[in-house]
Specification:
About 55% of the residues lie in helices and about 0% in strands. The protein contains 3 helices and no strands. Helix 2 (about 30-45) packs across helix 3.
């Protein structure tokens, strides 16, 4: 099911994807598919915030849970 998101700012979204992917792979030891979901969830969190923002682990976890994923 598709959902909509209000995009406030895309500043730093690409950086967030790369950083989240590396953290998911090296620290959480997720599979490539898990890394992709984790990175996209992190980017989804930050684009909803103004300016350059961060995504906490808890925010990423909540976003993943909304789509039926857990880590």
């Amino acid at each position: 099911a598709l959902t909509t998101t209000t995009v406030v700012s895309v500043s730093g979204a690409g950086d967030t994807v790369v950083t989240a992917w590396v953290c998911a792979k090296e620290i959480l030891k997720l599979s490539d598919a898990g890394c992709l979901r984790f990175a996209m969830a992190a980017a989804g969190v930050v684009v909803e915030k103004p300016y350059t923002a961060t995504a906490s682990l808890e925010e990423i976890r909540i976003r993943l849970k909304e789509f039926g994923y857990e880590f």
